[in-house]
Design a protein that fits this description.
Protein name: LysR family transcriptional regulator
Family: Belongs to the LysR transcriptional regulatory family.
GO molecular function: DNA-binding transcription factor activity; transcription cis-regulatory region binding
Order of helices and strands: HHHEEHEHEHEEHEHEHEHEEH
Strand content: 15-25%
CATH topology of the largest domain: D-Maltodextrin-Binding Protein, domain 2
Structural class: alpha/beta
Distance between the termini: 67 Å
Largest sheet: 7 strands, mixed
CATH architecture of the largest domain: 3-Layer(aba) Sandwich
Pfam family, one: HTH_1
InterPro entries: LysR_HTH_N, LysR_subst-bd, WH-like_DNA-bd_sf, WH_DNA-bd_sf
Number of helices: 11
Shape: globular
Length: about 300
């Protein structure tokens, strides 16, 4: 049996890298049409690029038809190899930029949702200082769930993540940022909204419909949630806010997230004993990370903004 030889060239050209970037966008967007906005080119141009890449690789990467878009098994493997290649290129660019006195390169940060309203604006102030020190540095922020951020840091897609200090992997280095206080809330229209604080006890609140989070909680939050009558769930804090604001549920929210609605008279904190907890937030990085001048400059700025 004659082994089929791949038509892929012995060296990777700029054109090959461009095609791989197009394929990455198509795979992550779930199709050609969805990738048009991401890439800024037409669907027909994307189709031509994909046909070129499949021809150069000698592999079929995806299937399209009435059943929808899907990567082939070879397509999934090429996608994973492409991520490794693009991450290596970014590492190369970062290390070469580190040879220059000017602070250049990219900083890819993953941040958990709903943190921008925290009074402790260490991230914002540190990013401002980084931009002053390195005007040519490119900052990319990705808003993602904590597990996705941790994985992104591990696989090199992200240089740094900001996540709750919950179930952290041993392969990640963490540094404490701040703590986020949460308490029990109800909204205008709920029977408890105008009730007297003196009558608010766990026993009195245990029968009211409540929101239970489906995302991981810190140890300090488990007891405050354990006695709630969870008849609805939310995958993040914003989802919990949607449900609480209906006036049909009680539930926990970070104080900084609830503050605008509290000030507008739409939310009220329920002063019940044990009805609050704190969530520590940390930065996470790979322990075995390579030198990265932009990242180190950002970490230095964080140290200056307690």
């Amino acid at each position: 049996m004659v082994e089929r030889k791949s038509p892929f060239p012995g060296r990777v050209s700029d054109f090959d890298i461009r095609l791989i970037r197009v394929f990455k966008a198509v795979a992550e967007c779930g199709g050609f049409t969805a990738a048009e906005v991401e890439l800024g080119i037409s669907r027909s141009a994307i189709s031509l690029h994909m046909a070129d890449l499949e021809k150069r690789l000698g592999l079929r990467l995806c299937q399209r038809g009435r059943s929808g878009f899907a990567l082939t098994e070879e397509g999934r493997q090429v996608y994973a190899a492409g991520l490794t290649l693009l991450a290596s290129l970014e590492t190369f660019r970062t290390e070469v930029n580190g040879l220059h006195r000017t602070l250049r390169g990219e900083l890819n940060i993953g941040i958990t949702d709903n943190l921008v309203s925290l009074p402790q604006m260490r991230i914002t102030h540190s990013l401002a200082e980084l931009k002053q020190r390195g005007p040519e540095a490119r900052i990319n922020i990705h808003m993602e769930p904590p597990d996705s951020i941790a994985q992104g840091v591990l696989d090199g897609r992200l240089h740094l993540g900001v996540v709750p200090e919950i179930n952290l992997l041993a392969s990640l280095e963490s540094r404490v940022l701040y703590s986020e206080r949460s308490q029990l809330y109800c909204a205008v229209g709920h029977p408890l909204f105008d009730s007297d604080d003196a009558g608010l006890t766990r026993q009195a609140l245990a029968d009211w419909d409540a929101v239970q989070p489906s995302y991981p909680l810190p140890e300090a939050a488990r007891d405050p949630h354990a006695w709630l009558n969870g008849t609805a769930s939310a995958s993040d804090r914003e989802g919990a806010a949607f449900l609480i604001l209906t006036g049909c549920y009680i539930g926990y929210l970070p104080d900084h997230l609830a503050a605008p609605w509290v000030n507008a008279g739409r939310l009220r904190g329920l002063a019940v004993s044990g009805g609050e907890y704190s969530t520590p937030f940390v930065t996470v990085m790979r322990r075995d990370r390579r030198p990265h001048r932009v990242l180190e400059a950002f970490l230095d700025a964080l140290a200056h903004h307690p």
